[in-house]
Amino acid sequence: MADEPTTPRASGGGVPARRPVKPTTKPAAGTPTAGKPTAGKPATGKPAAGKPAGAKPAGGVAKAATAKPVATKPAASGRQVAARTSAEPEPRFRSRMPQANAFAEFVAPAAGFGVTLANFFRKTVTEEYPTEKVPPKPRFHGRHQLNRYADGLEKCIGCELCAWACPADAIYVEADDNTPEAQFSPGERYGRVYQINYLRCILCGLCVEACPTRALTMTNDFELAGPTRAGLIWEKQDLLAPLRDGMLTSPHPMVEGTTDTDYYRGAVTASTPEQEAWVAEHRPDDPSLPANVAAGMPAAPRGATALAQADITARATRQGTR
User: Fold this and answer.
1) Of the candidates 125, 197, 121, 127, which has an alpha carbon nearest to the alpha carbon of residue 166?
2) What pLDDT is attached to residue 74?
3) CB proximity list for 250: less than 8 A, separation 6 or greater
4) pLDDT tens-digit series, residues 71-126
5) What is the pLDDT of residues 129-158, one digit of tens each?
């Protein structure tokens, strides 16, 4: 063939011997040469000048080089650290927590039921409710209560923070402005409408934490039940705390010369004669007036829902008593 050079003829004549053309460039290190696959050893040849190290040899297509571990290099501590190639699998996670032995695994069920097994032979304690009512703990979260100041004004200012803090959306508040003729609380505003839906309430106490004036607290009353859904929506008159001695039913003016800050700090300790005169002038039949209390006038009734709940509780107690 024209493209294959031949060796000069020998003096004795004959057909000249043909040989393949050697590649002009040497393969890169680690690349097997054409016709002679390497047995796992990388080639040690160097690339020719001006040619890339990965040039393909002319004698054929090179096979893919197999990944081999990189030679170990001395680490900073003097230990030999072998480099890991991508062909090696990732090391599996190993927990550093102590593993339980066979004996611990065998007695694990008994340890889990230890409390149950310990109470098998104890005396059974049964609370005879409602015949015997066990009082709850002092910090028990029960029914809510709207508190008053010492002169009878309401602590609620209608800020609606309790409604915003309620995770169950069980509180509904509508605020209104105080006027000289209708002063329900110290300051500018008061809660005109206040409702708590005990069908939604989870008694978490977040509303108490959100109240800035300590107007809303939780009592130890846990007997909340009723035959109707409407009977579990408590209004403002159902939640207001009962009047104590020295208190007047709101609305009435604030103590003379005081501000809402004085009320918040506890500077007001009782109602004044001026407040009693104002109530006697505008509501002479108010049962909270000292003259009417002395005459034996019954106190103002609570809200309709609170009265219905008290009646339900009383009838259930009588029915449950043996």
Assistant:
1) 197
2) 53
3) 148, 152, 153, 154, 183, 184, 185
4) 555 555 555 555 555 566 677 777 787 777 888 888 888 878 888 888 888 888 88
5) 888 888 899 899 999 999 999 999 999 999
Look at the block and give the residue holding tokens 């480099």: 83
Partners of 80 in beta bridges: 74
Q: Which domains are present in the chain?
A: 144-303 (3.30.70.3270)
Query: Which residues contact residue 181 at a Cβ distance below 8 angstroms, ignoring those fewer than 6 apart?
Result: 251
Give Cα 233 distance to the centre of its chain.
28
Place of tokens 């509904």: 172
Cβ–Cβ contacts within 10 Å for residue 166, how many?
A: 20
212 neighbors 117 (Cβ within 8 angstroms): no
User: Is omega for the bond preceding 47 within 30 degrees of 0, making it cis?
Assistant: no
Residue-wise pLDDT for 192-226, tens only, equals 999 999 999 999 999 999 999 999 999 999 988 88
For position 12, what pLDDT does the model report?
47
Backbone dihedral angles phi then psi of residue 314, each to the nearest 5 degrees: -65, -40
pTM here is 0.62
Q: Which of 52, 131, 108, 147 is nearest to 321 (CA)?
A: 131
- The conformational region for residue 50 under phi > 0 = left, psi -120 to 50 = alpha, else beta, is left
CB 178 within 8 A of CB 189: yes
The answer to whether the beta carbons of residues 59 and 23 sit under 8 Å apart is yes
Q: Are 186 and 153 in contact (CB under 8 A)?
A: yes
For residue 10, list its beta bridge partners: none
**Contact present, 238 and 226 (Cβ < 8 Å):** no
